Amino acid sequence: MKKRLLVLALILAMVLSAAAACANNGGSGSKAPVKVGLSTSITGAGAFIGVPAKLALEDYVAELNKNGGLLGHPVELVFADYGGDVAVEAVTTCNRMIEQDKVISILGPHGSAATIPMANLVDAAKIPMITSGSNSKCTIDENGNVHPYVYRVCYIDPYLGDVLANYAYNEMGCREVAILETIGEPYCMGLANNFESSFTALGGKILSRLGHQNTDVDFRAQITEAQSLNVDAIFMPCVTYLIPSLFANQAKEMGADFQYIMGDAVYNEELMTVAGPACEGSVIAVGVCEDDPSYAEFRKTFSEKHPGETANMYTMYTLDAMKLLEWAVNKAQSVEPQKIKEALETAANVELFTDKNFSIDPETHDPLKKTVTIMEITDSKYEILTSFKPE
Amino acid sequence: MVKLLQQIITGISIGGIYALLAVGYALIFSIFQFTNFAFGGILMGSAFAGYFATTTLGMDAIPATFVAVCAGVILSILVELTAYRPLRKRSSSRLFLMISAMGVNILLVNLATVTFGGNIRSLPADMRMDAIKLGSVQMGVLDLIALIGSAVILIALWGYLYKSRQGIAIRAVANDTNTARLMGINVNKVSLTVFVISGILTGMAGMFFGLKYTVYPTMGIISNKAFIASVIGGLGSLPGAVLGGLILGVLETLIAGFVSSVYRDLFSFGIMIIVLMFMPNGLLGKSNDKL
What we know:
The complex is a heterodimer of chains A (about 400) and B (about 290). Chain A is α/β, with parallel strands linked by helices. Chain A has helices spanning about 1-25, 45-65, 85-100, 110-125, 155-170, 185-200, 220-230, 240-255, 270-275, 295-305, 315-330, 335-345; strands at about 35-40, 75-80, 105, 130, 150, 175-180, 205-210, 235, 260, 285, 370-380, 380-390.
């Protein structure tokens, strides 16, 4: 009995301290605090995306609160982690943020697999969501209508797929390509489909779509297959850099010398540490070039403040989303979700972190005219080859 | 023809990895009749130990493997003492042991994410050895070492279980824990020995994995495949675990190479269901069990 009481008391103490921690976060502003959610992957394989994003957002909001927060309301951040089982946890945490935390807006998530199930929820609750890393057509529903409350700051697959297919066919001279495809991953399958349709329209051939599961670590079966097909290049629209790095290293060990074409989600400094030599000569398309000198100062300060962490593309997209929200609140002169949504509809020439001239297309809620930069991996470094800015 | 041969060789080397892990599952299952789902977490912990031994302390592959094995043993003992033994003491249902194991796994993975970050780390490239060519097919030296290593460990384990006094005690406990206790065998000591052996296997597998692939918090997920392998071979049977591992490895690569890699897992789980339907104890498992 005593033991049982002790356990109960311990649990109670934990719950109370958590509640107290929540209450203390309120800050000392004169107006009531407002909550902003960040939905990301803080645990699991995507933690390299979510952890720096969370830290950077915390730093940014601390600074923002010092300067008066959003229209005098101190900002409280609410973090939602969908690292374990994306489809289930994205929905559960989204409901929690809407119903319990009463957030005024949700930033993130960093992936289409989470954004797609969350889109209907935020629409129903009328809470604007600014996704900062979901490239598939997740602002549009299955009937082709725009999700009224879903916006994005990153660019979308059809455009990226088209740019890469053109580059592969015209500049790299590729005619026969294989695609490494993660089954059940919307970003990957979307980008793969777009690449395939653009590439075949140009006259190229997709010899095989080498499927694999998200949790696979061994790709020797797929490598043997690609070797026997004698492809010019392998397109890897993977969600993280883990799969391309394993694939490239294993291919190198098996004596295969493939050239890779990669989508933006793979872009990470760590890829160079883990598989730089195996990816030599590969081509990658990105929206944000991390090595751009204008980010150097931010990235240096970030790494000094958070040892062991590096600010990557998603970190910067997260700040873009926060800055867009801040702009919308100021434009609307309100922290009401509905007013924020109305302001977001009109976003034009907004200065964000990675884009000085950001505009939203009200028809699709996609950004207008985002630059795509194509880079080549040379001596385990990303070298900029060219940039495309749509007219 | 060359492609078929290459896929089979690849399959055998992947199967060797599954076998090494499946033996770890089989060993614990044969004694305690529960699946040690914390296996993946311990595997990851030892891989991280091996990684830090090579990168921070600048060790070579062999001493680093020793560090990884030590980490595997320590983690394995810790898990046994904190998560399993207290439950067994209360004669809890095996289901709770399994849930406790899953909890430990989640704890370890998240602890690693928080402490080391979610990034992927690779062991120094010169430790990944090259491939050897056998005619027109090739096999990684590392795979060959793993395959031979698994075989050697298995033979040593068999010798230990069948020829030594402690081994006989372990088998006695596996056969009937209560009677073994009545006969004066210290069951707690035996179970600790089993977890030490399991820790050694996991540590070696962790280091090998780190070398072959990379090191990251969720790497232990591969042990799911090893679990399937040990179910196919017969949960609790050591030779069954090896056979199951090899069958699964070869089948997966053949499916990926000649049907489609999309359907690979469908076949892996499918074969498990078929085996269980017709041979509920797996290929080499016996209904009265053990080792």
